[in-house]
Write a structure and sequence with these properties.
- The strands form two sheets. This protein has a five-stranded parallel beta sheet with strand order 2-1-5-6-7, with helices on both faces.
- The chain is globular and about 35 Å long.
- The chain is of the alpha/beta class.
- The protein has a single domain, classed as Rossmann fold, CATH 3.40.50.720.
- Helix 2 links the parallel strand 1 (19-23) and strand 2.
- It is 35% helix and 18% strand.
- It has helices at 8-15, 32-42, 87-97, 111-119, 130-139; strands at residues 19-23, 46-50, 56-57, 60-61, 77-80, 101-104, 123-125.
- The longest helix is centred in the N-terminal third of the chain and has 11 residues, at 32-42.
- InterPro entries: CoA-bd, NAD(P)-bd_dom_sf.
- It comes from Candidatus Nitrosocaldus cavascurensis.
- Residues 14-108 form the CoA-binding domain.
- Pfam families: CoA_binding_2.
Length: 142
């Protein structure tokens, strides 16, 4: 699977966005969809859990969908842990929320969703792991 063509500086710019709604975050501490947001939270990010079957994850209130996140809760970036064929409706909700970027985790890509987001001026990272990119650009370079 291909991935986006952002430069390291562009990825750093996207990683500078600190209010992240994680769609598909897991309660299971052994799953990547829990490990990655926990890592991000431990590294200064404000994580907003989005999972229809949880009331709370990582000690934070969980919302059923992006549209259920109150308007006074700022979302800069949406990190997606859902199958590729489920991405388009998430992207449409993210557009309505006025996010600056969408991050589709490793193995996730939906051409129509990427094009829709870009039409609205939203950057889309795809087929990359936020945790791996953060470690590569900030931790391993120390």
């Amino acid at each position: 699977m291909e991935r986006d063509n952002y430069s390291d500086d562009e990825i750093k710019s996207i990683l500078s966005l600190k209010n992240i709604a994680v769609v598909g975050i897991s309660r299971d501490p052994n799953k990547d969809a829990h490990i990655v947001p926990r890592y991000l939270m431990e590294n200064g990010y404000n994580i907003i859990p989005v999972n229809p079957s949880a009331d709370q994850i990582l000690g934070r209130k969980a919302y059923k969908s992006l549209k259920d996140v109150p308007d006074d809760v700022r979302i800069d970036l949406v990190d997606v842990f859902r199958p590729s064929d489920q991405v388009l409706p998430i992207v449409k909700e993210a557009i309505e929320k006025g996010v600056k970027a969408i991050w589709l985790q490793l193995g996730i890509y939906n051409r129509e969703a990427v094009e829709e987001a870009r039409r609205h001026g939203i950057k889309v990272v795809y087929n990359r792991c936020m945790m791996q990119e953060h470690k590569r650009l900030y931790v391993w370079k120390r």
